[in-house]
């Protein structure tokens, strides 16, 4: 099967209200949502927000290609929060990863990032089967493999607190999940599952 379109998956990272329940481990994910949900395609691009794919990493600087093949230099500092399935550091970021970054534009045109979300997805899907350590999901017209990550993956059932117990998930149900896409594949590592139906 053809790998998911990177732009489509990254666009799926926009977080809707219910997805924020129990998502505090993602730091400033709410800011990504607030930006994206308030910006229409007809609006001018926000110069302090970048989404794209990393083409190079040089020390603490990421080169990112975004919309209309626009290259942006994103500068990471000790104060930058980095999320890739969980809060992490620049060491876990790779060339080829997709990202959202928020920060302030510098005089040279680079973005000094205060937050970076790497490969983040927020998708609605149908659970088609459950295997050992993997959930098979129908997303749009394609299939996804959602990988359960021990010590990280949790589920939220209704108003209950997040739990590592996934035994209440049912084949045929619809779920919403936040996770980290594995670039150029149909695979996602799952951080949080929200049982929708």
Report the biggest beta sheet as strand number plus sense, adding barrel if it closes.
Answer: 5 strands, mixed, barrel
In the CATH hierarchy, what is the architecture of the largest domain at level 2?
Beta Barrel
- Can you tell me the residue ranges where pLDDT is under 50 for at least 5 consecutive residues? 1-44
**CATH homology group of the largest domain:** Nucleic acid-binding proteins
The chain-level structural class is mainly beta
Overall mean pLDDT: 81
> Could you name the CATH topology of the largest domain?
OB fold (Dihydrolipoamide Acetyltransferase, E2P)
Summarize the structure.
The protein has about 200 residues and is mainly beta.
Structural write-up:
With 197 residues, the chain is mainly beta. The protein has 2 domains: 45-118, Beta Barrel (OB fold (Dihydrolipoamide Acetyltransferase, E2P)), CATH 2.40.50; 120-195, Nucleic acid-binding proteins (OB fold (Dihydrolipoamide Acetyltransferase, E2P), Beta Barrel), CATH 2.40.50.140. 8% of the residues lie in helices and 45% in strands. The chain is built from 2 helices and 13 strands; from the N terminus they run H-H-E-E-E-E-E-E-E-E-E-E-E-E-E. It has helices spanning 6-11, 29-38; strands at 49-58, 61-66, 71-75, 81-83, 87-88, 98-105, 111-118, 120-131, 134-139, 142-148, 154-157, 174-181, 187-195. The strands form 2 sheets. The chain has a 5-stranded mixed β-barrel with strand order 1-2-3-7-6. It has a 5-stranded mixed β-barrel with strand order 8-9-10-13-12. Strand 2 and strand 3 form a beta hairpin. The radius of gyration is 17 Å and the shape is elongated. Mean pLDDT is 81; it is low at 1-44.
């Amino acid at each position: 099967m053809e790998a998911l379109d990177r732009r489509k998956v990254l666009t799926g990272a926009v977080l809707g209200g219910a997805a924020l329940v129990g998502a505090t481990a993602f730091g400033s994910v709410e800011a990504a949502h607030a930006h994206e949900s308030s910006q229409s395609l007809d609006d001018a691009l926000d110069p302090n927000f970048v989404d794209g794919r990393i083409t190079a990493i040089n020390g603490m600087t990421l080169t990112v290609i975004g919309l209309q093949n626009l290259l942006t230099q994103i500068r990471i500092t000790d104060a930058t929060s980095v999320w890739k399935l969980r809060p992490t550091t620049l060491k876990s970021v790779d060339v080829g990863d997709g990202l959202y970054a928020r920060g302030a534009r510098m005089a040279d045109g680079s973005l000094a990032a205060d937050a970076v979300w790497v490969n983040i997805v927020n998708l609605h899907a149908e659970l088609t089967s459950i295997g050992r350590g993997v959930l098979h999901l129908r997303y749009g017209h394609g299939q996804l493999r959602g990988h359960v990550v021990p010590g990280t993956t949790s589920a939220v059932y209704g108003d209950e607190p997040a739990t590592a117990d996934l035994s209440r998930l049912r084949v045929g149900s619809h779920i919403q999940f936040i996770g980290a896409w594995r670039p150029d594949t149909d695979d996602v590592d799952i951080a949080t599952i929200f049982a929708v139906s």
